[in-house]
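pls ignore typos typing on phone
adenosine-5'-diphosphate + seq
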Amino acid sequence: MAEFILEARDVFFDYPDGTSALKGVSLGIEKGKKVAVLGPNGAGKSTLFLHFNGVYRPKSGKVFFSGSEVRYNHSSMMALRKNVGIVFQDPDAQLFSASVYQEISFGPLNLGLNEEQVKERVNRAMAATGITELGEKPTHLLSYGEKKLVSIADILAMEPSVIICDEPAACLDPGHTARVLELFDRINRNGTTVVMSTHDVDMAYSWSEYVYVMHGGKIAGEGTPQAVFQDDGLLKLAGLQKPLLVDLSEHMRRKGLLAENSGLPRSRSEFLQLLDSR
Ligand code: ADP
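k done
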C-alpha cells in the first residue's frame, strides 16, 4: 500500500469572512514522489497547503503527517514545521531579514543548531540554488527571480522531508524556472517529497509523477499525468488546457501518424524518438 507523507481526510475550511475555501478535500501525497496540484485561481490550493504546515486548522476533517494525525499543540506544530517546508508564491511575503545570509540562517538557528551547523546548512542551500554570491546582499535589493531563489534556499536550509512550492515558476524567466525544476529533481532524488501548485500544464505534465486537480474547494480529479491530461471532461471542468505534447500526440494518433498503443511522450526528446521510430 502507498505510504502517504501528507494526507488530508475530508477537510473543510472557512475563512473568517465566511468564504468556504475547502469543501471536503481528501488527498494523499505519496512519500518520495513529485506531485503537482493544478486548478484555477481560487480553487483552494494555497489554503490546502497552509493546512499541511499547520498554519490553518480544519473546521472539520483531519490532516496526517507520516501516518500520525496532526495535533494543534506546540510539539506537533514544531515537528510539522520542521518537516514540511512551504515556499510561498510571493517571495516578498516570505523574506524579512536584512541580508540573504541572515534570511536563510533564520530557520536553522530556530531549530537550535550551533553556529557551525547553521553556516554549513546556509552555504549548502545557497550553493544548491546558485546564489552563493548574493550572501551579503540586502534582500530588498534583489530581483524578483533572485528573491524566489532565496525563498527556496530558506526552505532547503531547514532540510524538510516535504517541500511544497506554490507556483514555483510564477514570474520567473525560463532560465530561472529550469534551475528551480532541476533543483527540485535533485532534492527529490535524495528522498525529499516535492509538491507544487502550478497553472503551467506543460510543466506539470512533464515534471510530475502524480497530479491532483482542484476546483471550487474540492478535488475534481487525480491520477498519473498521462491519465489526467487525457481526461477532456476534467480539463474542461477545471479550465485547464491540454499540454502541447498530449495535444500533438492525440492529434497524430487520430491521423494514424502514431500507433494507438504508443505511449504518450513526456518530453520533446521522447516525442522525437517516437516520430523517428515510425
Ligand atoms: P488558490 O491557491 O487555488 O488560488 P486559495 O486557497 O488562495 O486558492 O483561495 C481559495 C478561496 O479562499 C478563494 O475563494 C479565495 O478568495 C478565498 N480566500 C483566500 N484567502 C482568503 C482570506 N484570507 N480571507 C478570505 N477568503 C480567502
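The chain has a mean pLDDT of 92. Residues 174-189 form the longest helix (16 residues). more later
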